[in-house]
């Protein structure tokens, strides 16, 4: 049903009522393509290889958790006309300190990780060509040029193509291994086999759960959705995104269960595990399937690279803009957040400076082992981000900062509280596993 009120929750006039329609879908596809990286797919494969179909239910719950978190981020942007960092800043200066340290350290190490991940399938496809470092640098420079010279509309189209490739390849591979339908449905019953707790928590909280969930509201604004008349459209868009993510997770669980579980094949942890899987697929189904899978591997990795290059740079530009503002936490008054705000940020010096930060300094890590202190800082800050996101959204959307009609209901509060608790447990475990 369309919105019927003449004004939005912030008092801004609604341009016209919007019905939720498939033709509007876009930001959700972007966040899904960005959030699912090669490392996530390997973690899911390993869970399937160890426990078969038993943890299928965790993938479904994880999908629901991500829908709740991203919906909350999008609802904040549309209901208040303020960005997420503007909301964080209103909670106190501690959020600014945390985000400033996080975005610098995280960006430095993630840049090298994303470039290496994108290069791995290219090296596997062209083993006689240039080495990993060459392709890593090349993908970083291509990502930089693409985001630097294109605006959101082109970016969204390319991300849609990449997620289409990912979807087709992953589902095709899952179909080739011939899933056990009965076992798949049995896996929807919540069961925790011995030794599966951490894998279960990882499936629920890890796949598709990154800083890009916080970037969702920025992409919503970049799309031109700027007030509550777009709320139903945003919710449909978000559900499609994380149902798509859920399909990826289920498909990779099937591959892990059918291809690896029975034969007890072990994968290398991290992105290189997908190269191992390519070799397994070649032995089982031939070179064509293996090469197709590597193309899907590249689409998965490169979509995450350009998604972060674009989305987190938008967040950094907003961070700098708010930091320069005269009053902490002051609401934006000159215009409701929308496409014009995003366009301005994409042309800004902070946006482009962070793009350069993501691209060039991390290249040094391609030659050096990651410094011990950076590994620790990256691990701690990264582990704390998802609890930070869940709990601050819970705070913001239950306070007077949000118009009354758009505050959390019982279901939203329950989902955000449960996700916050889940991410705190995962955070503690990640910190414990760091190489102290």
Describe the protein in words.
This protein has 436 residues and is mainly alpha-helical. 70% of the residues lie in helices and 0% in strands. It has 17 helices and no strands. Helix 3 crosses helix 17, helix 9 (197-205) crosses helix 17 (410-432) and helix 16 (372-396) runs antiparallel to helix 17. The protein is globular and about 60 Å long. The N and C termini lie far apart (54 Å). Mean pLDDT is 85; it is low at 1-15 and 327-334.
Q: Percent range for helical residues?
A: over 70%
Shape: globular
Report the portion of residues in β strands.
under 5%
Rounded radius of gyration (Å): 21 Å
Main sheet attributes: strand count, strand direction, barrel closure: none
Query: Mean of residue pLDDT?
Result: 85
Number of distinct beta strands: 0
Q: What structural category characterises the helix and strand content?
A: mainly alpha
Poorly predicted tracts of residues: 1-15, 327-334
Task: Calculate the terminal CA-CA distance, rounded to whole Å.
Answer: 54 Å
């Amino acid at each position: 049903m369309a919105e019927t009120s003449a004004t939005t929750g912030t008092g801004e006039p609604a341009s016209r009522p919007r019905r939720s329609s498939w033709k509007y879908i876009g930001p959700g596809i972007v966040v899904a393509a960005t959030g699912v990286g090669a490392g996530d797919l390997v973690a899911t494969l390993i869970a399937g290889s160890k426990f078969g179909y038993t943890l299928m239910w965790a993938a479904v719950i994880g999908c629901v958790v991500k829908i709740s978190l991203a919906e909350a981020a999008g609802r904040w942007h549309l209901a208040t006309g303020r960005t997420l960092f503007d909301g964080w800043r209103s909670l106190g200066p501690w959020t600014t300190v945390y985000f400033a340290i996080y975005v610098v350290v995280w960006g430095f190490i993630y840049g090298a990780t994303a470039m290496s991940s994108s290069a791995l399938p290219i090296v596997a496809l062209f083993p006689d060509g240039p080495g990993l470092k060459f392709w890593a640098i090349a993908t970083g420079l291509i990502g930089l040029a693409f985001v630097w010279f294109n605006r959101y509309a082109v970016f969204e189209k390319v991300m849609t193509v990449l997620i289409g490739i990912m979807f087709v390849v992953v589902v095709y591979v899952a179909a080739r291994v011939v899933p056990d339908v009965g076992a798949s449905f049995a896996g929807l019953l919540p069961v925790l086999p011995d030794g599966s707790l951490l894998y279960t928590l990882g499936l629920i909280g890890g796949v598709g759960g990154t800083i890009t969930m916080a970037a969702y509201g920025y992409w919503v604004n970049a799309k031109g959705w700027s007030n509550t008349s777009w709320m139903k459209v945003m919710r449909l868009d978000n559900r499609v995104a994380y149902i798509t993510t859920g399909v990826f997770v289920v498909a990779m669980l099937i591959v892990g269960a059918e291809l690896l579980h029975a034969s007890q094949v072990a994968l290398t942890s991290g992105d290189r595990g997908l190269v191992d899987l390519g070799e397994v697929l070649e032995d089982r189904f031939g070179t064509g399937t293996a090469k197709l899978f590597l193309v899907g591997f590249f689409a998965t990795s490169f979509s995450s690279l350009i998604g972060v290059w674009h989305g987190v740079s938008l967040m950094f530009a907003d961070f700098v803009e708010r930091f320069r503002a005269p009053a902490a936490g002051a609401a934006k008054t000159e215009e409701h957040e929308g496409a014009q705000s995003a366009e301005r940020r994409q042309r800004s010096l902070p946006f482009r400076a962070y793009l350069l930060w993501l691209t060039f300094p991390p290249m040094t890590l391609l030659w050096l082992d990651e410094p011990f202190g950076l590994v620790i800082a990256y691990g701690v800050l990264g582990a704390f981000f998802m609890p930070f996101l869940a709990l601050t959204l819970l705070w913001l959307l239950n306070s007077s900062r949000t118009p009354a009609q758009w505050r959390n209901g019982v279901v939203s509060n329950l989902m955000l509280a449960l996700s916050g608790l889940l991410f705190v447990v995962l955070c503690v475990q990640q910190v414990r596993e760091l190489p102290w």
